[in-house]
């Protein structure tokens, strides 16, 4: 089958040195001293084994030289913002209740064996909650790394590079609940409650939306908008507010009805000036779905605004304190295995084998082995599932609708520089450039990647459709030209200022589904019309669209459907055994 994710790596000239020290409340990152600082030389991840380090896809002429990580007497303290009060919000309590139903469900007399394809967050979530309900998930991952769209790899220097720049919002109740259940809340590094935008008309300058802690929602968001006078004028703010009134008054039914119109067309229809779209919603559209406002469904924007404006901490952001396979995915795997489930890497599915009645008989793997079960789940991206869709199912309307759901291309760029860049923040930054979406200096925002002497910028290159087939060097050249605007005093396109030490380019030709107008009716429920077959993934029907939160919620809803179908699935298994004994 075609390769869906492409990874390439290049190591260039090495200059400078770096020391990695940080302060953390997480004991797994090292030993803390009494003053809260990490004891010198107690570094964990630089030489650790990982789920992802085996995958080494490199360009043919890549050279390798190790970055010098010289541990001197330097002591650096990183202070995170405290975790916001999320546990008493309506959405968090709703997510917690759904989680509790799996733990509280009657223990099955015959635990089901459920075969799940795909160890991204959707598949991991499905397996985790089925295990909580007393069943035996068998989770199959095609690659040798966990995470799917949050996968990451370690290069020969011990540095990590990721599939995407992942942000955990306060408005992600199922994700936040999952962290709490696993006991890893301290692995989220919360940042100040702000949104920070670059100013293309003023190279090197930024404009901020600061959400005051003292005010409840939506007043904190309203004040953040009103106080920002650099991006929108007062007349533009007023027209935008008037344009949003139908959404605020119409509620969820109005939001859902806007699926058929693009962001740009909706803004014009509501009399909102084009400059509002250009100044704010190009950046927001690219951050949400890697596409521009003329393509993105307005429903996506309204859902995000609804969460951000109606929940006090909804737009507050956190970074994971290290690489996702180890710091997020492995705790889920350990939980699954502790309850009798299995997680198998390097288990690529070649074919979905059907019975005579059209239901699933087994999954056939690339090595020719077969995996049978009482139920089957496909938790891969929609594009991969469509490649393996059995011929007999293609005329079923449930599956036919999937044709409109297509993954959007995205490119994630990592650049290590020979110096510490000064014009940046300990936060996610919206670039507002034509080629880049969001970026962050991961040497500042993330404990595991911390480096006081050199910066590592991680950038989302979007929209990427015209660039996905171009060479890494072309992508880096284009990125450097954009960075020269963001860092005019520190970066130039010809590297006469900051020098590139090395870079990694991760291409995903088909990432999250492209949220274009009219695709909402095509999103499938987790329970398919085929008995014993289910779907999970952010493209399936759930209220958080294409996101990590959507993937985790889809897994919970998939697990819920299987638990609800327990008697039916047990009956199918007993019938299968009876037929086998007759033969």
From TrEMBL:
PANTHER family: 15-CIS-PHYTOENE DESATURASE, CHLOROPLASTIC_CHROMOPLASTIC, PROTOPORPHYRINOGEN OXIDASE. It comes from Solanum tuberosum. Its EC number is 1.3.5.5. The lineage of its organism: Eukaryota, Viridiplantae, Streptophyta, Embryophyta, Tracheophyta. It catalyses: 2 a plastoquinone + 15-cis-phytoene = 9,9',15-tri-cis-zeta-carotene + 2 a plastoquinol. Its cofactor is FAD. Homotetramer. The keyword Membrane applies. This is Phytoene dehydrogenase. Pathway: Carotenoid biosynthesis; lycopene biosynthesis. Keywords: Carotenoid biosynthesis, Chloroplast, Chromoplast, Membrane, Oxidoreductase, Plastid. Belongs to the carotenoid/retinoid oxidoreductase family. Residues 121-562 form the Amine oxidase domain. It is an enzyme of class 1 (oxidoreductase). Pfam families: Amino_oxidase. It is found in: Plastid, Chloroplast; Plastid, Chromoplast; Membrane. It is a peripheral membrane protein.
